[in-house]
UniProtKB/TrEMBL annotation:
Catalysed reaction, written as an equation: protoporphyrinogen IX + 3 O2 = protoporphyrin IX + 3 H2O2
GO biological process: protoporphyrinogen IX biosynthetic process
Gene that encodes the chain: LOC105227538
Protein's recorded name: Protoporphyrinogen oxidase
GO-annotated cellular components: mitochondrial inner membrane
Amino acid sequence: MTAVLGAGMSGLSAAYYLLQRFGYPATVYEASHRVGGWIRTERHKDKGFIFEMGPRTIRPKGIQGANTLQLIEELKLPVDPIKSWQPAAKNRLIYAKGQLCMLPNSLSGIFKTLPPFSKPLISQIKQDLVAGQKKLKLADESIYDFVERRFGAELANYAISPLICGICAGDAKEISVRFLMNDLFEKEQKWGGIIKGVVYEKLFGNKNKTAPAGLFGDSMPKLYEKSLKEKWSMYRVPDGLDTLPQTLRNYLQEKEVDIQLTSECREIIFTRNGVRMNIKGQEVEPKHIISSIPTHKLATCVKNQHPSLSALLMAIQYVDVAVVNLQYNIKDLLKMKAFGFLVPPIERIPILGVIFDSCCFDMEGNTILTVMMGGRWFEENFGKDPTPKKLLDTALQYLDLVMGIAEEPRLTRVHVLRKCIPQYTVGHTQRVSDIRRYIKHYKLPLTLCGAAYDGVGINDVILSARNQVESLRSLDD
Protein backbone atom coordinates (compact mmCIF):
# COMPACT_ATOMS: atom_id res chain seq x y z
CA MET A 1 0.00 0.00 0.00
CA THR A 2 1.07 3.56 -0.70
CA ALA A 3 -0.01 6.25 1.76
CA VAL A 4 -0.55 9.86 0.75
CA LEU A 5 -0.41 12.41 3.55
CA GLY A 6 -2.66 15.41 2.96
CA ALA A 7 -5.80 15.87 0.87
CA GLY A 8 -5.07 19.33 -0.50
CA MET A 9 -4.62 19.72 -4.25
CA SER A 10 -1.13 18.22 -4.22
CA GLY A 11 -2.09 15.17 -2.15
CA LEU A 12 -5.25 14.47 -4.16
CA SER A 13 -3.27 14.92 -7.38
CA ALA A 14 -0.62 12.49 -6.14
CA ALA A 15 -3.32 9.88 -5.53
CA TYR A 16 -4.70 10.58 -9.02
CA TYR A 17 -1.33 10.17 -10.76
CA LEU A 18 -0.50 7.07 -8.69
CA LEU A 19 -3.69 5.53 -10.03
CA GLN A 20 -2.74 6.49 -13.59
CA ARG A 21 0.91 5.45 -13.30
CA PHE A 22 0.66 2.21 -11.31
CA GLY A 23 -2.96 1.23 -11.76
CA TYR A 24 -3.94 0.66 -8.16
CA PRO A 25 -5.36 2.95 -5.46
CA ALA A 26 -3.55 4.57 -2.57
CA THR A 27 -4.89 5.56 0.83
CA VAL A 28 -5.07 9.30 1.55
CA TYR A 29 -4.87 10.54 5.16
CA GLU A 30 -6.11 14.06 5.88
CA ALA A 31 -5.86 15.69 9.30
CA SER A 32 -8.87 18.00 8.84
CA HIS A 33 -12.53 17.20 8.22
CA ARG A 34 -12.45 18.24 4.54
CA VAL A 35 -10.41 18.01 1.34
CA GLY A 36 -8.96 20.91 -0.64
CA GLY A 37 -6.45 22.40 1.77
CA TRP A 38 -6.48 26.20 1.52
CA ILE A 39 -8.98 26.14 -1.35
CA ARG A 40 -12.32 26.87 0.24
CA THR A 41 -15.56 28.28 -1.20
CA GLU A 42 -18.64 29.53 0.63
CA ARG A 43 -21.69 29.59 -1.63
CA HIS A 44 -24.67 31.94 -1.43
CA LYS A 45 -26.62 30.68 -4.44
CA ASP A 46 -29.87 32.34 -3.38
CA LYS A 47 -28.12 35.73 -3.58
CA GLY A 48 -25.99 34.97 -6.62
CA PHE A 49 -22.48 35.19 -5.18
CA ILE A 50 -19.69 33.18 -3.60
CA PHE A 51 -16.89 33.90 -1.15
CA GLU A 52 -13.46 32.41 -1.79
CA MET A 53 -11.34 32.10 1.36
CA GLY A 54 -8.26 30.97 -0.55
CA PRO A 55 -7.27 30.84 -4.24
CA ARG A 56 -10.01 31.71 -6.74
CA THR A 57 -8.42 31.65 -10.19
CA ILE A 58 -5.83 29.60 -12.08
CA ARG A 59 -3.50 30.77 -14.83
CA PRO A 60 -3.27 28.67 -18.00
CA LYS A 61 0.34 29.58 -18.83
CA GLY A 62 3.24 27.24 -19.55
CA ILE A 63 3.72 23.54 -18.88
CA GLN A 64 2.26 23.88 -15.39
CA GLY A 65 -0.88 25.52 -16.74
CA ALA A 66 -1.26 22.94 -19.50
CA ASN A 67 -0.95 20.13 -16.97
CA THR A 68 -3.76 21.51 -14.80
CA LEU A 69 -5.98 22.02 -17.83
CA GLN A 70 -5.36 18.40 -18.81
CA LEU A 71 -6.50 17.30 -15.34
CA ILE A 72 -9.61 19.50 -15.56
CA GLU A 73 -10.30 18.09 -19.03
CA GLU A 74 -10.03 14.53 -17.76
CA LEU A 75 -12.36 15.32 -14.85
CA LYS A 76 -14.84 16.82 -17.36
CA LEU A 77 -15.12 20.08 -15.42
CA PRO A 78 -16.35 23.29 -17.10
CA VAL A 79 -14.23 26.44 -16.85
CA ASP A 80 -15.05 30.13 -16.84
CA PRO A 81 -12.17 32.11 -18.43
CA ILE A 82 -11.10 35.73 -18.16
CA LYS A 83 -9.71 36.86 -21.52
CA SER A 84 -6.54 38.97 -21.74
CA TRP A 85 -8.44 42.06 -22.94
CA GLN A 86 -10.93 42.11 -20.05
CA PRO A 87 -10.40 44.67 -17.24
CA ALA A 88 -9.79 41.99 -14.59
CA ALA A 89 -6.88 40.68 -16.66
CA LYS A 90 -5.57 43.92 -18.10
CA ASN A 91 -5.80 46.34 -15.19
CA ARG A 92 -3.52 45.91 -12.18
CA LEU A 93 -3.45 48.52 -9.43
CA ILE A 94 -1.18 49.37 -6.55
CA TYR A 95 -1.83 51.75 -3.69
CA ALA A 96 1.19 54.04 -3.36
CA LYS A 97 1.92 57.60 -2.30
CA GLY A 98 -1.68 58.14 -1.20
CA GLN A 99 -3.46 57.01 -4.37
CA LEU A 100 -4.46 54.03 -6.46
CA CYS A 101 -2.09 53.77 -9.43
CA MET A 102 -2.65 51.78 -12.61
CA LEU A 103 0.45 49.85 -13.64
CA PRO A 104 1.32 50.13 -17.35
CA ASN A 105 -0.72 47.61 -19.33
CA SER A 106 0.46 48.37 -22.86
CA LEU A 107 3.71 49.02 -24.71
CA SER A 108 2.98 52.75 -24.89
CA GLY A 109 2.62 52.87 -21.12
CA ILE A 110 6.29 52.17 -20.48
CA PHE A 111 7.24 55.39 -22.31
CA LYS A 112 5.12 57.59 -20.02
CA THR A 113 5.81 58.85 -16.52
CA LEU A 114 2.97 57.33 -14.53
CA PRO A 115 2.52 57.43 -10.75
CA PRO A 116 4.02 56.26 -8.50
CA PHE A 117 7.14 56.25 -10.71
CA SER A 118 9.25 59.38 -11.09
CA LYS A 119 10.34 58.53 -14.65
CA PRO A 120 9.15 56.34 -17.52
CA LEU A 121 9.62 52.61 -16.99
CA ILE A 122 11.63 52.41 -20.22
CA SER A 123 14.43 54.34 -18.53
CA GLN A 124 14.51 51.78 -15.72
CA ILE A 125 14.49 48.95 -18.22
CA LYS A 126 17.43 50.58 -20.00
CA GLN A 127 19.33 50.48 -16.71
CA ASP A 128 19.54 46.70 -17.06
CA LEU A 129 21.43 47.12 -20.35
CA VAL A 130 24.11 49.28 -18.75
CA ALA A 131 24.23 47.73 -15.27
CA GLY A 132 26.80 45.15 -16.30
CA GLN A 133 27.32 41.67 -14.91
CA LYS A 134 28.58 40.90 -11.43
CA LYS A 135 32.08 39.52 -11.53
CA LEU A 136 31.21 36.66 -9.21
CA LYS A 137 28.52 34.14 -10.02
CA LEU A 138 25.77 34.29 -7.42
CA ALA A 139 24.23 31.20 -5.85
CA ASP A 140 21.15 33.18 -4.87
CA GLU A 141 19.94 36.56 -3.63
CA SER A 142 16.69 38.21 -2.67
CA ILE A 143 14.26 39.22 -5.40
CA TYR A 144 14.41 42.79 -4.13
CA ASP A 145 18.22 42.95 -4.37
CA PHE A 146 18.15 41.36 -7.82
CA VAL A 147 15.60 43.82 -9.23
CA GLU A 148 17.18 46.83 -7.52
CA ARG A 149 20.57 45.87 -8.95
CA ARG A 150 19.24 45.44 -12.48
CA PHE A 151 16.48 48.07 -12.67
CA GLY A 152 16.71 50.35 -9.65
CA ALA A 153 14.95 50.82 -6.30
CA GLU A 154 11.73 52.32 -7.68
CA LEU A 155 10.83 49.24 -9.69
CA ALA A 156 11.82 47.01 -6.77
CA ASN A 157 9.66 48.99 -4.32
CA TYR A 158 6.56 49.70 -6.39
CA ALA A 159 6.30 46.81 -8.86
CA ILE A 160 8.11 43.74 -7.56
CA SER A 161 7.60 44.06 -3.80
CA PRO A 162 3.78 44.24 -4.02
CA LEU A 163 3.84 41.39 -6.53
CA ILE A 164 5.61 39.18 -3.98
CA CYS A 165 2.99 40.18 -1.39
CA GLY A 166 0.38 38.87 -3.82
CA ILE A 167 2.23 35.65 -4.63
CA CYS A 168 3.31 34.42 -1.21
CA ALA A 169 2.43 37.19 1.28
CA GLY A 170 6.17 37.62 1.73
CA ASP A 171 8.87 40.27 1.81
CA ALA A 172 10.75 40.64 -1.48
CA LYS A 173 13.83 41.54 0.55
CA GLU A 174 13.83 37.98 1.92
CA ILE A 175 12.35 35.84 -0.87
CA SER A 176 14.71 33.91 -3.16
CA VAL A 177 15.07 35.00 -6.77
CA ARG A 178 16.60 31.61 -7.56
CA PHE A 179 13.37 29.90 -6.51
CA LEU A 180 10.59 32.23 -7.67
CA MET A 181 12.23 33.93 -10.68
CA ASN A 182 14.91 31.46 -11.65
CA ASP A 183 14.47 31.96 -15.39
CA LEU A 184 15.29 35.68 -15.16
CA PHE A 185 18.09 35.03 -12.67
CA GLU A 186 19.76 32.50 -14.98
CA LYS A 187 19.46 34.82 -17.97
CA GLU A 188 21.30 37.51 -16.02
CA GLN A 189 23.97 35.12 -14.79
CA LYS A 190 24.50 33.59 -18.24
CA TRP A 191 24.25 36.62 -20.50
CA GLY A 192 25.13 39.50 -18.20
CA GLY A 193 21.68 41.07 -18.20
CA ILE A 194 17.98 40.22 -18.28
CA ILE A 195 17.04 42.08 -21.44
CA LYS A 196 20.18 40.84 -23.18
CA GLY A 197 19.34 37.29 -22.07
CA VAL A 198 15.77 37.52 -23.38
CA VAL A 199 16.98 38.77 -26.76
CA TYR A 200 19.86 36.31 -27.08
CA GLU A 201 17.73 33.31 -26.16
CA LYS A 202 15.09 34.44 -28.63
CA LEU A 203 17.75 34.54 -31.34
CA PHE A 204 19.96 31.63 -30.37
CA GLY A 205 17.91 29.56 -27.92
CA ASN A 206 16.19 26.24 -28.50
CA LYS A 207 13.32 27.07 -30.84
CA ASN A 208 11.94 23.56 -30.51
CA LYS A 209 11.52 23.70 -26.76
CA THR A 210 8.49 21.60 -25.89
CA ALA A 211 6.89 19.86 -22.95
CA PRO A 212 8.91 17.20 -21.10
CA ALA A 213 9.00 13.96 -23.07
CA GLY A 214 5.83 11.96 -22.64
CA LEU A 215 4.03 14.46 -20.42
CA PHE A 216 1.19 15.10 -22.86
CA GLY A 217 1.83 12.49 -25.54
CA ASP A 218 1.69 13.64 -29.16
CA SER A 219 -0.44 16.74 -28.59
CA MET A 220 -1.12 19.34 -25.95
CA PRO A 221 -4.41 19.22 -23.98
CA LYS A 222 -7.36 20.59 -25.97
CA LEU A 223 -8.30 23.03 -23.22
CA TYR A 224 -4.76 24.39 -23.23
CA GLU A 225 -4.87 24.91 -27.00
CA LYS A 226 -8.24 26.63 -26.58
CA SER A 227 -6.79 28.91 -23.89
CA LEU A 228 -4.04 30.01 -26.28
CA LYS A 229 -6.43 30.56 -29.16
CA GLU A 230 -8.88 32.58 -27.06
CA LYS A 231 -6.12 34.36 -25.10
CA TRP A 232 -7.17 33.39 -21.60
CA SER A 233 -5.42 35.28 -18.84
CA MET A 234 -6.90 33.17 -16.04
CA TYR A 235 -9.94 31.03 -15.34
CA ARG A 236 -12.03 29.60 -12.56
CA VAL A 237 -14.19 26.55 -12.08
CA PRO A 238 -17.85 27.70 -12.01
CA ASP A 239 -19.60 27.46 -8.64
CA GLY A 240 -16.32 28.02 -6.80
CA LEU A 241 -12.77 26.76 -7.02
CA ASP A 242 -13.24 24.09 -4.37
CA THR A 243 -15.35 22.27 -6.98
CA LEU A 244 -11.98 21.10 -8.36
CA PRO A 245 -10.74 19.21 -5.24
CA GLN A 246 -14.29 18.00 -4.51
CA THR A 247 -14.62 16.56 -8.02
CA LEU A 248 -11.17 15.01 -7.78
CA ARG A 249 -12.09 13.42 -4.44
CA ASN A 250 -15.29 11.95 -5.92
CA TYR A 251 -13.37 10.58 -8.90
CA LEU A 252 -10.78 8.94 -6.65
CA GLN A 253 -13.37 7.39 -4.37
CA GLU A 254 -15.16 5.90 -7.39
CA LYS A 255 -11.80 4.28 -8.26
CA GLU A 256 -11.58 2.79 -4.74
CA VAL A 257 -9.07 5.28 -3.37
CA ASP A 258 -9.62 5.41 0.39
CA ILE A 259 -9.70 9.02 1.63
CA GLN A 260 -9.71 9.14 5.42
CA LEU A 261 -10.56 12.50 6.97
CA THR A 262 -9.73 13.59 10.56
CA SER A 263 -6.79 11.18 10.31
CA GLU A 264 -3.68 13.07 11.30
CA CYS A 265 -0.33 11.32 11.11
CA ARG A 266 1.46 11.74 14.45
CA GLU A 267 4.66 9.76 13.92
CA ILE A 268 6.54 8.05 11.12
CA ILE A 269 9.06 5.27 11.73
CA PHE A 270 10.98 3.88 8.77
CA THR A 271 11.53 0.13 9.01
CA ARG A 272 13.45 -2.45 7.01
CA ASN A 273 10.31 -3.44 5.09
CA GLY A 274 8.64 -0.07 4.71
CA VAL A 275 7.07 2.41 7.09
CA ARG A 276 5.11 2.38 10.31
CA MET A 277 2.78 5.35 10.83
CA ASN A 278 0.76 6.39 13.85
CA ILE A 279 -2.66 7.52 12.60
CA LYS A 280 -4.95 8.55 15.46
CA GLY A 281 -3.23 6.09 17.78
CA GLN A 282 -3.47 3.21 15.28
CA GLU A 283 -0.48 1.69 13.49
CA VAL A 284 -0.55 1.68 9.68
CA GLU A 285 2.22 0.03 7.65
CA PRO A 286 2.44 1.22 4.04
CA LYS A 287 5.39 0.44 1.80
CA HIS A 288 5.81 4.05 0.72
CA ILE A 289 4.66 7.52 1.77
CA ILE A 290 4.00 10.52 -0.46
CA SER A 291 3.80 13.56 1.80
CA SER A 292 2.10 16.77 0.73
CA ILE A 293 1.61 18.12 4.25
CA PRO A 294 3.39 21.29 5.45
CA THR A 295 7.05 20.78 6.32
CA HIS A 296 6.60 21.66 9.99
CA LYS A 297 3.99 18.89 10.36
CA LEU A 298 6.18 16.33 8.60
CA ALA A 299 9.12 17.46 10.75
CA THR A 300 7.20 16.54 13.90
CA CYS A 301 6.40 13.10 12.48
CA VAL A 302 10.04 12.16 11.73
CA LYS A 303 11.76 13.99 14.58
CA ASN A 304 12.34 10.99 16.86
CA GLN A 305 14.03 8.81 14.26
CA HIS A 306 15.52 11.46 11.96
CA PRO A 307 16.18 14.68 13.90
CA SER A 308 18.48 16.03 11.17
CA LEU A 309 15.76 15.68 8.53
CA SER A 310 13.31 17.28 10.95
CA ALA A 311 15.63 20.26 11.38
CA LEU A 312 15.93 20.70 7.60
CA LEU A 313 12.15 20.64 7.25
CA MET A 314 11.65 23.08 10.12
CA ALA A 315 13.98 25.58 8.43
CA ILE A 316 11.17 26.38 5.97
CA GLN A 317 9.05 29.07 7.56
CA TYR A 318 5.33 29.74 7.00
CA VAL A 319 3.16 32.83 7.45
CA ASP A 320 -0.40 33.49 8.61
CA VAL A 321 -2.84 35.34 6.37
CA ALA A 322 -6.13 36.99 7.35
CA VAL A 323 -8.87 36.89 4.73
CA VAL A 324 -11.88 39.21 5.01
CA ASN A 325 -14.74 38.58 2.55
CA LEU A 326 -17.25 41.38 2.05
CA GLN A 327 -20.60 41.52 0.23
CA TYR A 328 -22.38 44.72 -0.71
CA ASN A 329 -25.75 44.49 -2.46
CA ILE A 330 -24.74 47.41 -4.68
CA LYS A 331 -23.81 46.65 -8.28
CA ASP A 332 -21.58 49.58 -9.26
CA LEU A 333 -19.67 50.26 -6.05
CA LEU A 334 -16.26 50.03 -7.74
CA LYS A 335 -15.04 53.17 -9.51
CA MET A 336 -12.19 51.31 -11.24
CA LYS A 337 -12.48 47.97 -13.02
CA ALA A 338 -9.51 45.72 -12.27
CA PHE A 339 -8.46 42.43 -10.71
CA GLY A 340 -7.73 44.36 -7.53
CA PHE A 341 -4.88 46.25 -5.95
CA LEU A 342 -1.73 45.39 -3.99
CA VAL A 343 0.08 47.47 -1.41
CA PRO A 344 3.88 47.86 -1.48
CA PRO A 345 5.40 47.14 1.96
CA ILE A 346 7.14 50.54 1.79
CA GLU A 347 3.69 52.12 2.37
CA ARG A 348 3.58 50.49 5.82
CA ILE A 349 -0.18 49.95 6.05
CA PRO A 350 -1.62 46.69 7.45
CA ILE A 351 -3.21 45.20 4.34
CA LEU A 352 -1.56 43.25 1.54
CA GLY A 353 -4.20 44.05 -1.05
CA VAL A 354 -7.82 43.72 -2.13
CA ILE A 355 -9.31 41.45 -4.80
CA PHE A 356 -12.30 42.76 -6.76
CA ASP A 357 -14.12 39.43 -7.07
CA SER A 358 -17.22 40.91 -8.70
CA CYS A 359 -15.08 42.54 -11.39
CA CYS A 360 -13.50 39.19 -12.19
CA PHE A 361 -16.76 37.25 -12.43
CA ASP A 362 -20.49 37.99 -12.45
CA MET A 363 -21.92 38.13 -8.92
CA GLU A 364 -25.49 39.00 -9.97
CA GLY A 365 -25.70 42.62 -8.88
CA ASN A 366 -23.48 42.26 -5.80
CA THR A 367 -20.09 43.86 -5.19
CA ILE A 368 -17.81 41.24 -3.64
CA LEU A 369 -14.39 42.17 -2.27
CA THR A 370 -11.70 40.14 -0.51
CA VAL A 371 -9.19 41.92 1.72
CA MET A 372 -5.89 40.10 2.35
CA MET A 373 -3.85 41.01 5.42
CA GLY A 374 -0.88 39.84 7.46
CA GLY A 375 1.55 37.47 5.81
CA ARG A 376 5.15 38.27 6.71
CA TRP A 377 3.85 41.17 8.85
CA PHE A 378 0.91 39.42 10.56
CA GLU A 379 2.15 39.53 14.15
CA GLU A 380 3.75 42.95 13.68
CA ASN A 381 0.41 44.43 12.59
CA PHE A 382 -2.12 42.40 14.57
CA GLY A 383 -0.38 40.55 17.38
CA LYS A 384 -0.49 36.79 17.82
CA ASP A 385 -4.22 36.28 18.16
CA PRO A 386 -6.33 39.21 16.89
CA THR A 387 -10.10 39.13 17.24
CA PRO A 388 -12.25 38.82 14.11
CA LYS A 389 -13.64 42.27 14.92
CA LYS A 390 -10.19 43.84 14.88
CA LEU A 391 -9.43 42.30 11.51
CA LEU A 392 -12.80 43.32 10.06
CA ASP A 393 -12.47 46.87 11.38
CA THR A 394 -9.00 47.14 9.84
CA ALA A 395 -10.26 45.90 6.47
CA LEU A 396 -13.15 48.39 6.44
CA GLN A 397 -10.93 51.25 7.59
CA TYR A 398 -8.52 50.80 4.70
CA LEU A 399 -11.24 50.21 2.13
CA ASP A 400 -12.54 53.63 3.11
CA LEU A 401 -9.05 55.17 3.02
CA VAL A 402 -7.96 53.65 -0.30
CA MET A 403 -11.20 53.26 -2.25
CA GLY A 404 -13.57 55.67 -0.53
CA ILE A 405 -15.98 52.85 0.35
CA ALA A 406 -17.70 53.91 3.58
CA GLU A 407 -20.85 51.78 3.13
CA GLU A 408 -21.44 48.96 5.59
CA PRO A 409 -21.22 45.54 3.95
CA ARG A 410 -24.33 43.37 3.99
CA LEU A 411 -22.40 40.20 4.83
CA THR A 412 -18.87 39.58 6.10
CA ARG A 413 -16.62 36.63 6.83
CA VAL A 414 -13.27 36.71 8.63
CA HIS A 415 -10.80 33.83 8.51
CA VAL A 416 -7.23 33.51 9.72
CA LEU A 417 -5.29 30.93 7.71
CA ARG A 418 -2.53 29.80 10.03
CA LYS A 419 0.82 28.83 8.50
CA CYS A 420 -0.77 28.69 5.07
CA ILE A 421 2.03 29.85 2.75
CA PRO A 422 5.68 28.74 2.86
CA GLN A 423 8.30 31.46 2.61
CA TYR A 424 10.88 30.85 -0.10
CA THR A 425 13.67 32.79 1.55
CA VAL A 426 17.15 33.13 0.06
CA GLY A 427 18.72 29.68 -0.21
CA HIS A 428 15.39 27.88 -0.52
CA THR A 429 16.37 25.88 -3.60
CA GLN A 430 19.38 24.53 -1.72
CA ARG A 431 17.26 23.70 1.33
CA VAL A 432 14.84 21.65 -0.78
CA SER A 433 17.78 19.94 -2.46
CA ASP A 434 19.30 19.08 0.95
CA ILE A 435 16.00 17.59 2.16
CA ARG A 436 15.61 15.39 -0.90
CA ARG A 437 19.30 14.44 -0.83
CA TYR A 438 18.93 13.28 2.80
CA ILE A 439 15.93 11.11 1.88
CA LYS A 440 17.82 9.60 -1.05
CA HIS A 441 20.99 9.01 0.99
CA TYR A 442 19.15 7.06 3.69
CA LYS A 443 16.93 5.34 1.11
CA LEU A 444 13.77 6.36 2.92
CA PRO A 445 10.50 5.27 1.27
CA LEU A 446 9.33 8.87 1.31
CA THR A 447 8.46 11.22 -1.55
CA LEU A 448 7.70 14.92 -1.12
CA CYS A 449 5.38 17.10 -3.16
CA GLY A 450 3.56 20.37 -2.71
CA ALA A 451 3.98 24.09 -2.21
CA ALA A 452 7.00 23.97 0.09
CA TYR A 453 9.15 22.19 -2.46
CA ASP A 454 8.07 23.02 -6.00
CA GLY A 455 6.12 26.28 -6.08
CA VAL A 456 3.28 28.19 -4.50
CA GLY A 457 0.48 28.10 -7.10
CA ILE A 458 -2.21 25.51 -7.80
CA ASN A 459 -0.51 24.65 -11.10
CA ASP A 460 2.80 24.16 -9.30
CA VAL A 461 1.50 21.76 -6.64
CA ILE A 462 -0.42 19.64 -9.17
CA LEU A 463 2.64 19.32 -11.43
CA SER A 464 4.80 18.68 -8.36
CA ALA A 465 2.61 15.68 -7.53
CA ARG A 466 2.77 14.40 -11.09
CA ASN A 467 6.54 14.75 -11.38
CA GLN A 468 7.19 13.10 -8.03
CA VAL A 469 4.92 10.15 -8.86
CA GLU A 470 6.63 9.80 -12.24
CA SER A 471 10.00 9.70 -10.46
CA LEU A 472 9.01 6.49 -8.68
CA ARG A 473 10.33 3.55 -10.69
CA SER A 474 8.15 1.02 -8.97
CA LEU A 475 6.24 0.74 -5.74
CA ASP A 476 6.44 -3.03 -5.78
CA ASP A 477 10.25 -3.33 -5.40
